[in-house]
Specification:
Elements (H helix, E strand, L loop, with lengths): L2 E9 L3 E8 L1 H18 L12 H30 L12 E2 L13 E8 L13 E6 L4 H14 L2 E4 L10 E9 L11 E7 L10 H4 L7 E7 L13 E15 L5 H7 L6 H34 L7 H18 L4 H10 L4 H7 L1 H20 L6 H15 L3 H8 L5 H20 L1 E7 L2 H5 L2
Parallel strand pairs: 5-11
Antiparallel strand pairs: 1-2, 2-4, 3-4, 6-10, 7-8, 7-10, 9-10
Helix pairs in contact: 1-2, 3-6, 5-6, 6-10, 7-10, 10-13, 11-12
Length: about 450
């Protein structure tokens, strides 16, 4: 389509309105082409297919075809401008025709239409260097390594029958239980057999942990349980139950010694306990360094975003919330239908969870836009050596060769995403390097990592 003129107008909430004027003769030609097409293809009563005169088609369907010609002209023009990069709408929301009901072609005048659409906010960051922040002093101590060893010891323990004695905390028990009515009869469909849990873990519906402590194997008793209105599980809230419980098995963990044999059992690459401890220290140190870096950049980005004014379009926020929802499903290995049912049991809906993601979505988007602005301001580039280094990292984590990874991530589909990741990493390193970061008070490693 021949464009006579076009102009772009800024709207609120990071939107734009594009107004385009198309040559009237171009639109008239499109209209004529459609008339000829329908004259050949349409079946009209009183005429053989392909033999309907054009004037008959125009008399009967002219206004409809005129509207179709207008919409076709709009679609072709819009696609042309988007493909040429002259307009850059966000993909999250459909562009909208402005005043669509009054769009009526007039053969005496050029055809004018307007489209509104969301765009990515354009921001300019200032004062992003020399930002002052503070992070705690965190080191990996011998006690931290010992705690990790004890976790590994527990994970590699054998579960064996308890030789004697009653149920204690941390014992692994097998129980039968059922609900009783006021007459002491078992309520239908309330029986559960061979239920296994660790005492003190709370991993049982009616929270029977403390109630079975002191019971012996094959002992049975009735427990009365009452739950307040603050109970998380809707099925228990404000309810009282009489529960018959029988202890069928009591088992304990037989912990292995923390020695060279344990190290070798965990991984054949460890020959001695010292090898395992060195690996634990390296892993914990890396975790601390990663979190410290995250704390630094979070403080820096919070400072920048608080002093930078820009609006986020709702479509952009909604897309980020949906991405968070998809991550939630993936992390919990759930299909959407399963998640909705679980939430329903908890008295919640998908919309509740998605709304909970909004604040994080807004922050995440603002951080991304700030990093993008820094990349532009500092003219940061992703060199081929950066891609090669990233291929090596991915290959090492995946147990593959860099060449294998390059074949997947180096193609036209994935490489732009990898480039964005590399550039964001460079922007983060730049901001941290340009900041004034002080070391604060000493903080225990476990406390810091749990923050």
């Amino acid at each position: 389509m021949k464009i006579v003129s076009k102009k772009t107008e800024k709207l609120e909430n990071s939107a734009e309105k594009l107004t385009v004027t198309i040559d009237k003769n171009e639109l008239r030609k499109a209209y004529t082409d459609l008339l000829n097409h329908y004259a050949k293809e349409a079946t009209v009563k009183g005429f053989r297919k392909g033999k309907t005169p054009v004037n008959v088609i125009e008399n009967r369907f002219g206004e409809i075809i005129k509207g179709e010609a207008a919409m076709k002209a709009i679609d072709e023009t819009w696609k042309e401008l988007v493909d040429a990069g002259e307009v850059k709408p966000l993909p999250y929301a459909e562009p909208k025709l402005v005043d669509e009901e009054n769009l009526k072609p007039d053969w005496d005048n050029d055809f004018v239409f307007s489209i509104s659409y969301d765009v990515e906010p354009e921001i300019t960051v200032a004062g992003y260097k020399n930002i002052e922040t503070e992070v705690p002093k965190v080191t990996v101590e011998e006690a931290d390594i010992q705690k990790e060893l004890e976790k590994l010891q527990d994970q590699n323990a054998m579960v064996v029958p308890k030789k004697s004695g009653a149920v204690e905390k941390n014992d692994i028990v097998t129980i039968d239980y059922s609900l009783l009515d006021e007459e002491g009869n078992v309520m239908p469909k309330s029986e559960r057999e061979d239920f296994v849990f660790t005492v003190g873990s709370g991993y049982n519906l009616y929270k029977l942990d403390d109630d079975i402590i002191g019971m012996n194997k094959d002992e049975e008793k009735v427990v009365k349980k009452s739950f307040g209105e603050d109970e998380n599980a809707p099925a228990l809230k404000g309810q009282s139950f009489n529960i018959k419980v029988k202890v069928k098995e009591i088992k304990v963990k037989d912990l292995p010694a923390i020695d060279d044999d344990l190290a070798q059992d965990i991984n054949e690459k460890f020959k001695t306990l010292d090898d395992l401890k060195a690996d634990i220290k390296e892993r914990l140190t890396k975790a601390v360094e990663t979190k410290l870096k995250g704390s630094k950049i979070e403080a820096i980005l919070n400072k920048i975003t608080s002093e930078t004014s820009f609006e986020l379009p709702q479509s952009m926020i909604a897309a980020e919330q949906d991405s968070a929802w998809q991550n939630f499903l993936a992390q919990n290995n759930l299909q959407e239908e399963q998640a909705v049912q679980i939430l329903k049991y908890q008295g919640k809906t998908k919309e509740d969870i998605v709304n909970d993601f909004k604040d994080a979505a807004v922050k995440n988007l603002k951080d991304k836009l700030v990093l993008k602005a820094v990349i532009k301001a500092e003219d940061l580039k992703a060199e081929e050596s950066d891609f090669d280094a990233r291929y090596e990292e991915i290959a090492k984590a995946a147990g593959k060769t860099a060449e294998e990874i390059k074949k997947v991530y180096g193609n036209a589909s994935f490489k732009p995403y990898l480039e964005e990741e590399i550039l964001n990493g460079k922007a983060v390193d730049f901001l941290i390097g340009a900041a004034k970061i002080k070391t604060g008070k000493k903080t225990a490693m476990a406390d810091f990592l749990s923050m």
